[in-house]
Amino acid sequence: MNNQKIAEIFNEIADMLELSKENRIFEIRAYKKAALTLDSMQEEVSDILEKKGIEGLMEIQGIGKGLAEKIKEFVATGKIKKYEELKKQYPIDFSNLTRIQGMGSKRAFMLYKKLGVRNIEDLRTVIQTHKVRELAGFGEKSENELKNGIALLDASKGRILLGTALPEAELIMKSLAASGLVEKIELAGSTRRMKETVGDLDILVISDNSKKVMDLAERLPETQSTISKGPTKITLWLKIGISCDIRVVEKESFGAAMQYFIGSKDHNVKVRQIAIKKGYKLNEYGLFDMKGKILANENEVEIYKKLGMQYPEPEMRENRGEIELAQEGRLPKLVSLNDIIGDLHVHSKHSDGLNSIEEMVIEAKRLGRKYIGITDHSKTEYIAHGMDEKRFLEYSKEIDMLNKKFDGEIKILKSAETDILKDGSLDFSKEALDQMDYVLASVHTNLTMKKEEMTKRVITAIESGKMNILAHPTDRIINQRPSIQLDMDKIFEAAKANNVVVEIDSYPERLDLNDENILKAKKYGLNFSISTDSHRLQHLSFMRYGIGMAKRGWLEKNDIVNVMPLEKLIKIFNKNR
Ligand code: DGT
Ligand code: CA
Ligand code: CA
Ligand code: ZN
Fold this sequence. Notes:
This protein has 24 helices and 18 strands. By secondary structure, the protein is of the alpha/beta class.
């Protein structure tokens, strides 16, 4: 557990350095990058230290000597002196306070200095007593913004990101499967439906030794404690902070159990009504006729068939019209991960990514991608080390060089994640934009603009005749930051009219567009890209979460652009530039 703890400390050090009067931007970036690395690293730093010493740490991307020494210090003493010293100067719970929308380290510090706010509870109090609005630089609007931010944070408690839940479920299922105790194991619940956040994990097992399966589950490294344990069901509390239901079911009724526990509840309720109308009964043990004779139970597909329905993929099961389509035999044929041959939103060391372009390309190639668009940030993204026109030229040369080197094995597309500035203009010169194979653009600043103004800003960019992809359109961060205010209908209308592709950003904290917006956008006949917004090698595998959203939004292969061969894709991009 050292890695996460150290990541948190490094992030806090970065927060505190931002308060320094001197310009510490390089140090700040180094700490932030290291935190990102540590957070998603598989191997424990203490194991690395034991095996290879401090040199082992320095082999890790983004960890130099100074940071390696701090990690070693933490493993040895449980503390980092630099952090303790800064903390004396700033006794503030930055890591939780900065989770609140509208709160950066500077504001947190102001609130501490003027009102003695050290943590979220203190902040609640001073908001309630309206002390925040009286502060210079805050006002009533800021006070309300912070109040809403806290409410959002409260509401999010208890649900975790799909990007955390799914890998965790896979680890647990892998261990159980490897034991040889189970004949079959399947994921159910919201995680199986690829919902953006998950309340608890649901796993179904066939085994003739349910006691042993449960005993094993209790001893897994992921398990914190046992909440309840019966003959066929165990509920565990996991270290990641959610519970996990594991049910052992009979082989004969496995299909019925799957149909029931995949859900959603709303979908099930409607399907059961259909069964009742036919004079049947449907529950987690099977589909029965009037006399109680079993019609189907072992196989989910068979259950739907006997009800006169096509089999709906789990991602669609939300009672949003899929049941009627399944009855009419008109379900869409959903896009799948295998259809994807390119990734159009990827960062490198040139801005806030951790790896070189070449490293990202090699990994993309390993994943079977035929092309990869590199999209580092533009200059307005100062903290992210965004590129100005001069640095874009170096970046551009490097991409040309790499394309020669890879010689068609994979094509590297030249792009940049170009900020849509306050007035709707794009954050690169015309010359730079013209050099790109396509332009990916997004909003990153002035996030609190009013709906009308924000909508106009984004449409101005869409109509510029320069941009190709609108990246993470609503800019929400799940559980942390609400969407920017946009009239989505107007945005989709403009995107359609100007041949602009809308992105489904697969980064687990974003998943933007989300399923509901995708369903809406599909009605406008838009083109979608599904990309990872990778900031390091491992992120290139986030694609499956974007696919999950796309399937939840009923998208088919021909709605997506990065399934197309490169020549066809470039034609689409060139149409409006
Ligand atoms: P979550 O855990 O809040 O992210 O969402 P789910 O969908 O995983 O919900 P959960 O874990 O409470 O239950 C798993 C599935 O079991 C759910 O999707 C459908 C089924 N289920 C649970 N309760 C009911 C119920 O009262 N009626 C019906 N028909 N199905 C239910
Ligand atoms: Ca669940
Ligand atoms: Ca459950
Ligand atoms: Zn990005």
